[in-house]
Design goal:
Layout (H helix, E strand, L loop, with lengths): L4 E4 L7 H10 L1 H4 L4 E5 L1 H10 L6 E3 L5 H4 L4 E5 L15 H17 L6 E2 L5 H6 L7 H13 L6 E6 L2 E5 L9 H4 L2 H17 L7 E5 L14 H15 L3 E6 L7 H4 L4 E4 L2 H11 L5 E5 L5 E4 L16 H23 L2
Helix pairs in contact: 5-7, 9-10
Length: 341
């Protein structure tokens, strides 16, 4: 791929800089695709020194990054100095993280970046700065809509070779889930997942397994009516549109090996119903993929881990998996675009 991936710095006080440096240091051993970091080159140089990683770091433009990647870690400066110490966010944390995301979206949309890989951010730090969005995913959707003029409906999928899961509702208190869950939300999510599995993951006929909201998928109404009145009708609509969707299924029997081979992605009704199984099966290499955007975005499936930032103990496996998957999906998107008449 001639264009490099745009990798955001994330929360500078977290492990994002650590795992970025570790991934670049293993680039040749792992045959990683080229990427550049959106952030602050001086800050990354200081963090590398703290980690006892003597690596060359160079400031570049996005178009120069792929050529520079083999010899140095390329950094595209966002014009904001990062000053946070490991594990201690400061007043620079949110501005740097947000500027990196904004720049990444602009660059992938104007064709100078192949895809976006985002390092973890700390939502509470962003919120304290006045950040209005619930998280990364929603902010990316807003930026895509603003910059393209076309409405984007982002959908979060957690992917690993063992399992792919999609939470239909995401960051909500459990008591709010039944109030927020509705027919249109399930149908729209199912459509986006089926479409992107076909176009980006090249699965010709995607199979969706849809979990029930309640224990035993409601036990025919004995354990709640939502599965009968909301989830089942949504599945019927997806089926009527030609999408291979099955359910509502009892969530407690959806994730053993024999069950997983029968579908390509599981649609789950709330956050933990989706994330507990994939983090149990693939804690160190699952990838967060945002579907429904006009570009490819992936992220490691973990947080900022302030307690180990700057110690050298952070595992870069999930970031490496996110980099590889972003390059793969960007390539598939490029191939798909080339064959459209």
């Amino acid at each position: 791929m001639s264009k490099a991936l745009a990798l955001t710095l994330g929360e500078p006080a977290g492990i994002g800089p650590d795992i970025t440096i570790a991934a670049w240091a293993r680039r040749a051993e792992l045959a990683l695709p080229a990427f550049y970091v959106l952030g602050d080159a001086s800050f990354l140089a200081r963090r590398a020194s703290n980690l006892d990683q003597r690596i060359p770091i160079i400031s570049v433009s996005p178009r120069e990054a792929a050529e520079a990647f083999g010899a140095a870690l390329p950094v595209v400066d966002v014009g904001i100095e990062a000053t946070a110490a490991p594990g201690i966010p400061d007043q620079s944390s949110a501005p740097v993280a947000i500027a990196a995301i904004r720049a990444a979206v602009r660059q992938v949309l104007d064709g100078t970046a192949a895809a976006i890989v985002t390092n973890p951010v700390a939502k509470n730090v962003l919120y304290q700065s006045g950040f209005p969005e619930p998280g990364h995913t929603e902010f990316l959707g807003k930026l895509a809509t603003e910059l393209t003029g076309v409405g984007a409906r982002p959908v979060m999928m957690l992917w690993a070779p063992e399992l792919a899961v999609v939470p239909v509702t995401i960051h909500l208190p459990l008591t709010d889930v039944p109030r927020q869950l509705n027919f249109d939300l399930i149908v729209e999510t199912g459509r986006i997942v089926a479409r992107d599995l076909a176009t980006r993951f090249r699965i010709k006929f995607p199979r969706l397994a849809v979990a029930g909201l309640n224990p035993h998928a409601g036990e025919h109404g004995a354990l709640g009516i939502e599965d009968r009145t909301i989830v089942a009708p949504a599945i019927e609509r997806l089926q009527a549109e030609g999408i291979d969707a099955r359910g509502p299924l009892p969530a407690d029997t959806m994730f053993h090996p024999a069950a997983r081979v029968r579908y390509d992605a599981a649609l789950c009704m709330y956050h933990d119903q989706a994330l507990i199984p994939i983090k149990t099966l693939a804690f160190d290499h699952a990838v967060n993929v945002t579907l429904g955007l006009p570009f490819v975005r992936t992220s490691p499936d973990h947080g900022t881990a302030f307690d180990i930032a700057g110690t050298g103990r952070a595992d870069p496996s999930s970031l490496i998996a996110a980099i590889r998957l972003a390059a793969r999906l960007a390539q598939e998107q490029q191939v798909a675009a080339a064959v459209v008449p």
